[in-house]
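Journal club side-thread
Mid-discussion, someone asked how the predicted structure for our own chain would compare to the paper's figures. Pasting it here so we can look after the session.
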Amino acid sequence: MPIPCPHFKITIVKRSQGQSAVAGAAYQSGERLFSEYDQKTKFYNKKKELVHAEIMLPSHAPPGYADRATLWNAVEAVENQWNSQLARRIVLAFPVEVPKEQYLKMIREFCQEQFVSKGMIADFAIHDKGDGNPHAHILLTLRAMDEYGKWLPKARKVYDLDENGERIRLPSGNWKCHKENTVDWNDQKYAEVWRHGWETITNRYLEAAGRPERVDLRSFERQGMMRSLESNFWMNKADSCCGIRTCSTPLSAAIFPLQRPVCWQTASMVRIPSMVIYYAHGVDVADELSPGFRDRFFREELHIPDYLLENLGKAKPEEQAEIFEEIKNYVPKPKKVKPNKVTVKQAEKAASNTIDENYDVPQKFLELYYRLHNAESLMRKSWEVTFDLNPKLLTHPEQVKVLRFALKPHLEFLKTLDEVLAESSGESSKTA
């Protein structure tokens, strides 16, 4: 029996985003760790949900790195750039169908097989609040180590050679070269390799537990499911609560099959918020009470706020008629149109008086006209915002002084520009 894709997220801890490997280790382990990089103590109390925390070392790693503070301070010390990548973080979900006693064995097996055996140090922690969402955090080192436990560079310089095996000199006098990564752990192919590795281990433990469920960590597209999902529904997250557009088939019929009745928190095939379920059910109830409602609603002939449809979806059968009456009687509030400021109107009127309405801009100057028009429009909008933020700008004596002082150079420029234009216009008329 296939079950929804479990949570499996891979990210990079980046110094450029203010992140810290020491802070990440403190968060997942619940330990109080001191960061030598920023001289701050990192502590996040995880006593209630922390089940187990452990560091797994490859055979050539210094034994001292079994201490969490020593390990991650050493990692941050060797990364001396402001935008250094410090560690790789993986967060994955455990299947609740597998006994909890097996979780530690599962994660150890996964880390040993995929990371530690390749030379990475794996610092993992198992969290479980008892809310049906058991999961693990894994922090991985990004640099390889030599046989003496010394950190190696992430990349090395390699000189390009010509067909004779000689270095190629550039016009600048430098040798042509490129960078090669010391290890390929950042290759995107490993995201799929690691996901498949966790999928294999999970399915093996599910089988050992006598469970019929199996997981598939491939993307919907790789599983050939995208077409069927798209034909059922699509969700637009830009709407206030993931507005749904669909055909005349019931929305709940399209959505509810995706909410598998499997106790696999953070692992549903499509994470559909409860508000969307209520919203979809509300549309279906409204269509039952008033046939044709769904079609008119999605043709945007009706403008009903989402919260009313959610309330209808949540309501008991005896309450539905009352809420639907509220929906039928709903009248959208008219949009308030802000009147233009008097000063802006006056400016537009003054400008229109100076423009010859009979003048047609020659085709070859249209691009120039659009640029000038856009510049004027941007300036006018900027003034509108200024007047909105400072309503007393033209009435308060001190603010008027500030305005005149700020505008003085600009007004002098416009005056000079106007004189030049008038002079040019006079010369053009004489030439004509």
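Post-session note: Residues 226-249, 254-272, 339-357 have pLDDT under 50 and may be disordered.
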